[in-house]
Write a structure and sequence with these properties.
By secondary structure, the chain is mainly alpha-helical. It contains 13 helices and two strands, in the order ααβαααααααααβαα. The protein has two domains: 56 residues, no CATH class; 231 residues, Fumarate Reductase Cytochrome B subunit, CATH 1.20.950. The protein has a two-stranded antiparallel sheet with strand order 1-2.
């Protein structure tokens, strides 16, 4: 028997005597019987406490780094979203909100909560009209963005930066490990993180499905002259189910990231101002920040050489 085992057994016996008022003999006997199970549980508890302590130390170190970064910033702001992108987002957001509040009640028209909403928009005769007005806004936003990414330099550059790359999968895995406490290092993002890329392409795919199927349902009689009825039936199901999926994605995923995230609450104002602070740039897009700073140093050096 090792001294370490004796120490553990003595500690258990002492605890039984103090906390549970057992006699020394009974405490010693029960400690001996508990010893084998206590040894494995004690080792597990030590590992757990060690993990917690290390995590707390890393958290404290990150907080110190954030404070240091905040005090080192110059107060500069960076333009992240141009006015054109913000206007596109505003039109799309307003259209989607109106589509949701007029579309879901039609999908669940037999539910008690849906009836007053339908009545608010003028009943079953007028509610679809508001839905189609919102759909027109979404179509305009989609076409506007399509022209933007094809015809402008900013749009083409932004589209290229939004293409998913293998690094995004690595960043996602790094983020999961960070949340689980397996590493103290967060992924270092460039201009767009994998979260923002997912947001973009989910909206892109959703608009293709919703506009395509919605157009078929809007002009059903025209399409029935050219395609079998089962095609419009599929469009109806696709439109209905994708609408519910998109609503859940907006409420659970996008709304959290923009509004309920503790670092952004009550909202991330970038979609309004188009700007991001230097501190946010360093913390959220360090690779982009470093590239911008390096480009500035290079231009400054070239300018100094010319003089």
């Amino acid at each position: 028997m090792s001294e370490r085992d004796d120490a553990l057994r003595d500690a258990v016996a002492g605890e039984l005597e103090r906390a549970h008022r057992l006699s020394p003999a009974e405490a010693a006997e029960r400690a001996r019987r508990m010893e084998s199970r206590m040894r494995s549980r004690f080792a597990t508890w030590v590992r757990r406490e060690l993990t917690i302590q290390r995590r707390q130390e890393k958290t404290a170190a990150r907080l110190d780094e954030h404070v240091e970064a905040a005090t080192a910033t110059t107060g500069e702001v960076f333009v992240r979203l141009s006015l054109e992108l913000r206007l596109q987002h505003a039109l799309m957001a307003l259209s989607v909100i109106l589509l949701v509040v007029t579309g879901l009640p039609l999908k669940f028209h037999e539910s008690a909560w849906a009836k007053p909403i339908i009545a608010f928009f003028g009943g079953p005769d007028f509610s679809p009209i508001f839905h189609r007005i919102a759909a027109t806004g979404l179509i305009i936003a989609g076409l506007w963005h399509l022209v933007f990414i094809v015809a402008t330099r900013e749009g083409r550059r932004t589209l290229v930066q939004l293409i998913p790359m293998p690094q995004d999968a690595k960043d996602a895995w790094q983020q999961i490990k960070y949340y689980l406490g397996r590493t103290g290092e967060r992924p270092r993002y460039d201009r767009f993180s994998y979260v923002e890329k997912f947001d973009y392409w989910a909206v892109y795919w959703g608009m293709v499905i919703m506009i395509g199927s919605g157009t078929m349902l809007w002009f059903t009689e025209f399409f029935l002259r050219h395609v079998p009825k089962w095609v419009t039936d599929i469009a109806k199901e696709a439109h209905s189910d994708e609408a519910l999926l998109a609503t859940l994605a907006i409420v659970i995923w996008h709304f959290y990231n923009v509004h309920l995230n503790p670092h952004k609450f009550p909202m991330n104002k970038t979609f309004i101002t188009g700007k991001i602070t230097e501190r946010e740039m360093i913390e959220e897009h360090p690779l982009e920040y470093e590239r911008i700073m390096e480009e500035r140093r290079r231009k400054a050096a070239e300018g100094g050489g010319d003089s």
